[in-house]
Amino acid sequence: YMTMGRQKYGQPYETPSTLKIDKKSPYYFTDDKCLYELKNDELILIFCFKGGCNTVDVADGTVIIKNGAFNHCKYLTSINLPETLTTIEDNAFKGLELYSLKLPAKTTDIGASEFSYLVDNLSTWNSYYGTGSSWSTKIIVDPENPMYASGDNCFIKKSDGKATVIRVYDKRVDEIVIPSCATHIGPGVFE
C-alpha cells in the first residue's frame, strides 16, 4: 500500500509536483502527470499528481481509472482517454469542469455518481460559456460502444434491449433533440 500527500481537515489532499518511482518497480510507474499501477496484467491509473495542468493524455493500455484519480486537478479541462479504457470508477472526475470528453468503444463501466459529475460539470461549462461558444461542451461516445451513446446534448445508456436517455447536459438550448436510437427517457432527465 502506498500513500501520497497529506490531507488537512476538510480539504483535499496535497499532492507532490513530482513523483518518482524506482525504475526497478514492476508494479508502479509515472508519466509526467499520473501514477499508474500494473496489477494482474492490467494498467490502472491511480491518480494525477500534476494539479496545475489543463490536459491529460491517459497512457495507452490503461483499462481502469480509479476512484478520485483526478480530484487534485482543479484546472483540468480536457482528458484524452485511450481506446483500451473499460472502467471509470466513481468520483474519478469529481470537481472537474471538463469541456469535452470522448468515451471509447470499450468504456462500458462508469460509476453511477461518476456519470452525474461528468454531466453536471459539462453543464456548468455550457451555462457559463453558452452552447454557441467555442467552449460549448459535449460528451462524444464512440459509435461502437455497446453500453453508451450520445446525442447533440444528451447521454444514453443501452441495456436489456433499451436505449434510455439518462441525462440531458444542456437544457438552456432552444431545442433538445432526442436521438432516433432512444427508446426510453429516464427519470429526472429534464430536472
Q: Helix and strand layout, with pairings?
A:
Elements: E1 6-7, E2 13-14, E3 28-30, E4 34-39, E5 42-48, E6 55-57, E7 62-65, E8 78-80, E9 87-88, E10 100-103, E11 109-110, H1 112-129, E12 138-141, E13 148-150, E14 154-159, E15 162-168, E16 184-185
If you had to describe this structure to a student in words, what would you say it looks like?
This protein has 191 residues and is mostly beta strands. Helices cover 9% and strands 31% of the residues. The chain contains one helix and 16 strands. The strands form five sheets. It has a six-stranded mixed β-sheet. The longest helix is centred in the middle third of the chain and has 18 residues, at 112-129. Residues 1-12 and 123-136 have low confidence and may be disordered.
Entry keywords:
16 strands, 1 helix, mainly beta, 191 residues, 6-stranded mixed sheet, single chain
Please summarize what this structure is.
The chain is mainly beta and 191 residues long. The protein has 1 helix and 16 strands.
Instruction: Strand order, main sheet: write it out.
Output: 3-4-5-7-9-11
Number of helices: 1
Number of strands: 16
Query: Taking all residues together, what is the mean pLDDT?
Result: 78
Shape: elongated
Order of helices and strands: EEEEEEEEEEEHEEEEE
Q: Estimate percent helicity.
A: under 10%
Q: Strand-residue fraction?
A: 25-35%
Structural class: mainly beta
- What Rg is obtained from the alpha carbons, in whole angstroms? 17 Å
- Termini separation: 42 Å
